[in-house]
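Collaborator request log, item 7. Partner lab (contact: R.S.) asked for a structural prediction of RNA polymerase-binding transcription factor DksA to inform their binding assays.
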Amino acid sequence: MTARAKSSSIVLPPDYRPSEDEPFMNERQRMYFRNKLLAWKDEIIRQTRETLVGLHEESTQHADLADRATSETDRALELRARDRQRKLVGKIDAALARIDDGSYGFCEETGEPIGLKRLDARPIATLSVEAQERHERRERVYRED
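Returned to partner:
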């Protein structure tokens, strides 16, 4: 039985929140984070569809040059935001794959648990807070060179 098939047999209460009192990344926690990630992905896809429909409907030509410039700027900003969202969907898919392979919730650098609060706030996290801070410090040092 795959992790996905096994996880789908659990029904979480609507008010369930992962707790430090239970084993880390147990079946309930994996299901909680899977549901959270899938809902986030669905919301991004819904917003993207709305954007595409809106951009298609807005493609009318403006007689006024200033209106056209404003419209093009808004369109460029919206497309840039959607591109960031598209990249985020890739990270969500990677997190879902980690849930399936059992590595979700563990720091890629240290192998230690990432922490429930961090995962709840950023379910695509791959590093613990400490490892992320080290990574950002190294990044700052190289950027300053």
